[in-house]
Amino acid sequence: MKTDIVAILRKGGDNFVSGQTICDQLQVSRTAVWKHINQLKDDGYIIESIPKKGYRITVYPDRITEYEISPWLNTVELGRNLVHRHTVDSTNILAKGLAREGCPDGTVVTAEHQTSGRGRSGRRWTSIQEGAVQMSIVLRPHVSPAKAPSITQIGAASIALALESLGVSPRIKWPNDVLISGKKVCGILTEMSCELDHIHFIVMGIGINVNVRSFPEEISSVATSLALEGQDNLNRARLAADVLNRMEPLYRSFLQGDSEPFLSVCRRLSWLRDKSISFSRNGEPLSGVAGDIDDQGRLEVIFPDGTRDYLLSGEVHIGSI
């Protein structure tokens, strides 16, 4: 009901909306409206109320809740079931639990703060309270598990497109990071529950540094935020919705067998192309030069002897061994 009340008051703009009008639209009692208005105040909304005139919102909080994200969504499924917690150990952990319980395809979990967020290889994700878009998306694609790595690239392309719309110049570090000015502004962690030929669910965790002004010393040279790149006081909920809005058509095209929409973005914004890289395969360190991304989303690697190979997934480092 809080989502509906926020939507009604938002539509009213600077005008007061009477309690009776809210009651009539939602078919609830005035007591119920009053109760939820007070809950919204506890959530950070500043709501002015005047007897015989009604209510109006004068300040909206910077929260990535369902009632702040929903007004910006134009998706059919992604984000239509949204679970928000102020603090969690990890949005991916919560999302995986909900997925096992049968939550709908496209469920999104958001949080203002993570106490145990992590990235690839178990690295700790630094979470600045109310400074980032931290969300996990539950997907149930009817594709082979072998095609699951494409989901990460769909996420990276969607985020990059949303950031481009803000006027910044993102680059995608294959397969799961988005950079600005050579520094990481967003990381993606994709986890899957599957059998040999069937995906039960995929959870894609996204962390975008938005209104973060500083980072711990150990990562300050490699991390950045939209605020540090000149994008001050961004609406995190609107950014989260924009990512979901851009992701859904890319995801649907992928499910229909067309990967070109997201691959074209990943190729255009590739940060690794023509750079010397190193990686490990079966415990053996290897070096080469990054080429393009092929039609399967694999990264081409050109070795010193001129031979070529393709990486489907994994961690790639800049520089030769």
UniProtKB/TrEMBL annotation:
CDD domains: BPL (cd16442), HTH_ARSR (cd00090). Residues 67-255 form the BPL/LPL catalytic domain. GO terms for biological process: regulation of DNA-templated transcription. One of its GO terms (molecular function) is biotin--[biotin carboxyl-carrier protein] ligase activity. Residues 19-38 bind DNA. It comes from the Bacteria. InterPro entries: aa-tRNA-synth_II/BPL/LPL, ArsR-like_HTH, Bifunct_BirA, Biotin_CoA_COase_ligase, BPL_C, BPL_LPL_catalytic, HTH_11, Transcriptional_repressor_C. It catalyses: biotin + L-lysyl-[protein] + ATP = N(6)-biotinyl-L-lysyl-[protein] + AMP + diphosphate + H(+). It holds the Pfam family HTH_11. Keywords: ATP-binding, Biotin, DNA-binding, Ligase, Nucleotide-binding, Repressor, Transcription, Transcription regulation. Acts both as a biotin--[acetyl-CoA-carboxylase] ligase and a repressor. Belongs to the biotin--protein ligase family. This is Bifunctional ligase/repressor BirA. It comes from Dethiosulfovibrio salsuginis. The lineage of its organism: Bacteria, Thermotogati, Synergistota, Synergistia, Synergistales.
